[in-house]
Design goal:
- The chain has 544 residues and is of the alpha/beta class.
- Helices cover 32% and strands 20% of the residues.
- It contains 14 helices and 21 strands.
- Strands 1, 2, 6, 7, 8, 9 and 17 form a 7-stranded mixed beta sheet that branches. It has a 6-stranded mixed beta sheet with strand order 18-16-10-20-21-19. Strands 12-11-15-14-13 form a 5-stranded antiparallel beta sheet.
- Strand 1, helix 1 and strand 2 form a beta-alpha-beta unit.
- Helix 2 crosses helix 3 and helix 13 packs antiparallel against helix 14.
């Protein structure tokens, strides 16, 4: 098996991974940048809104932090929020130096938008509603051009490799030629994005299968707050068509939500259309049930300015389906959008396993709490991507290749001869199950039933072995679904995006994180321990 030696191995080419790779390379380290698809096919590419940063005289770092903490419903770590927000303006400037072109007003100032939960316009965007594409192209070009970064497209990372002391020392991959290979590194960075493909209705591309979280957990890393999965309120909903995100900036510019009778139903909700995403999503869901409709409708006819000019990407997609966004109501409904929980990290990307870093959507840094505020995710990817790359580069100095092994779930009983598992059927069944029983609303009974099915499918799929990418992705999705459901079952309250109709109130005792930790026996995961962990701000001070 070929072994490729690099100082730092980064898995994922989106905003967080590309930024981390550039930071490590600029620190003098040779970097392998791996992606299972093409380098530009990332969640970042599809981001429409922008990057949140306090850049106007009317705004402030304190206001940005306060808004983030409020939307986080008590679970955002104050130190993480203040630290990331503080570096936002610098991150915007750094990305501009790397080639990103931000939208500006005629006077040269940033053209700032406002999204839900923000008290001020502070969202920097590019090409109207194509911010993610601008960021991806700028960072991708910079990474491709850097002499110390080698990009490996179509390279599927199967698992992390651990030394005998448990330290992560590399990754096992299937290369673009279909061969198994090892990439060793003094530090490994997971920047694999989220797990939106867990749900039938999602804004995420097909690549979002939770790979980084699943691999990190199999290597022994703690996972935090996976019960919190954010649903975006407004996906373009046309039966039979792919779901397309209708950005929050549309509502920020004056778009309003109406039901099938034309009634604007958000007027009496604090914040109206710009209330936090969990509030808007549940309001839409409730109105769909009340009106027995498959969607509600976004009305752009009364906004200032021409919607076609303001939102060219959305206009183009809707026009394809015969919808004139300046005149016609746009059918929308909620869909899975962002995985708030992930591998537990500090503010330099370190996980609980030596040698392993994580950043971006696959990480839980503490900023988002129980509900992410719009456009804070690209901010987190830029700020912590830079720090993670520098921290991993420092760790990689002088590290060489070591003996390795793969930790894995406990093997199941061999399947009977002739038994086959339909991967596509299990994948669709999982997505439907998660949408019904781990979606916008949940109950303990629904979650327990989901866990039984997830465990059954996991045992069946595990017997197939590593035969094809669709199987590996399903294994990872099942792993994340299991951890998310365990966490949701333990959290017997409603908070942020986690809403249990059997426990509809927020409980002060649950102002804490959930943490899942694997327990190994003979190198295999024997069980998962789920614990309630106080926020960092609530922990006792050492020596006090």
């Amino acid at each position: 098996m070929p072994i490729y030696r690099f100082g730092v191995v980064v898995v994922g080419t989106g905003v967080a991974g590309a930024t981390a790779a550039l930071a490590a390379a600029e620190a003098g380290i040779e970097v392998a940048l791996l992606t299972k698809a093409s380098p530009e096919e990332t969640n970042t590419l599809y981001a429409q809104g922008g990057v949140a940063a306090a850049l106007s005289p009317a705004d402030s770092l304190a206001a940005h932090a306060a808004d983030t903490l409020a939307v986080g419903c008590g679970l955002s770590e104050r130190a993480a929020v203040e630290s990331i927000v503080r570096d936002g303006p610098t991150a915007i400037a750094t990305l501009e130096k790397r080639g990103a072109l931000w939208d500006r007003r005629p006077d040269g100032c940033f053209d700032l938008s406002r999204e839900g939960g923000h008290s001020h316009p502070r969202v920097v965007h590019a090409r109207g509603d194509a911010t993610g594409r601008e960021i991806q192209q700028a960072l991708g070009a910079a990474a491709q051009a850097h002499p110390r970064i080698t990009v490996f497209p179509d390279t599927f990372t199967l698992d992390l490799l651990c030394a005998n002391d448990g330290r992560v020392v590399g990754v096992l991959v299937r290369t673009a030629r279909g061969e198994l290979a090892v990439f060793s590194g003094g530090a490994v960075v997971m920047a694999t994005g989220g797990a939106g493909q867990l749900y039938r209705e999602t804004t995420n591309p097909a690549i979002a299968t939770g790979d980084g979280v699943a691999m990190g957990f199999r290597a022994g890393a703690a996972v935090r707050d996976l019960e919190f999965f954010q649903f975006h309120p407004t996906l373009l909903y046309i039966a039979g068509a792919a779901r397309v995100l209708i950005s929050e900036i549309v509502r920020g510019a004056g778009g309003v939500l109406r039901d099938r009778r034309g009634v604007r139903f958000m007027e009496r909700v604090p914040g109206a259309e710009l209330a936090p995403r969990d509030v808007v999503s549940r309001a839409i869901f409730e109105r769909m049930v009340a009106t027995q409709d498959t969607s509600v409708y976004l009305d752009l006819s009364g906004m200032n300015g021409d919607p076609h000019t303001l939102f060219p990407g959305i206009s183009r997609v809707c026009r394809y389906f015969g919808i004139d966004i300046a005149r016609d109501p746009v059918p929308v409904r909620p869909g899975a959008h962002y995985m708030i929980g992930g591998l537990e990290t500090d503010l330099e990307g370190r996980t609980t396993v030596p040698g392993l870093w994580a950043v971006g959507e696959c990480a839980s840094s503490g900023i988002h709490g129980a509900n992410r505020m719009g456009s804070n995710s690209l901010l987190e990817g830029l700020v912590l991507g830079e720090r993670t790359g520098l921290s991993a580069a420092e760790e990689a100095q002088g590290k060489g290749i070591q003996d390795w092994r793969v930790r894995a779930p406990r093997a199941a009983v061999a399947a009977p001869d002739g038994m086959r598992v339909n991967i596509q059927d299990v994948t669709y069944s999982l997505k439907s199950l998660m949408w019904r029983q781990m979606g916008l609303e949940r109950t303990g009974a629904q979650i327990e039933d989901a866990l039984q099915k997830i465990r059954l499918w996991s045992r069946a799929v595990r017997e197939l072995g590593a035969s094809e990418p669709a199987t590996w992705e399903l294994v990872n999705l099942l792993g994340v679904a299991h951890l998310a459901s365990l966490s949701a079952l333990v959290r017997a309250e409603s908070r942020g995006v986690h809403y249990r109709t059997d426990h509809p109130t927020t409980q002060p005792a649950w102002c804490a994180h959930t943490r899942c930790v694997p327990v190994f026996e003979e190198g295999h995961i024997a069980e998962v321990v789920v614990a309630r962990v106080p926020l960092e701000s609530e922990l006792p001070v050492a020596g006090a």
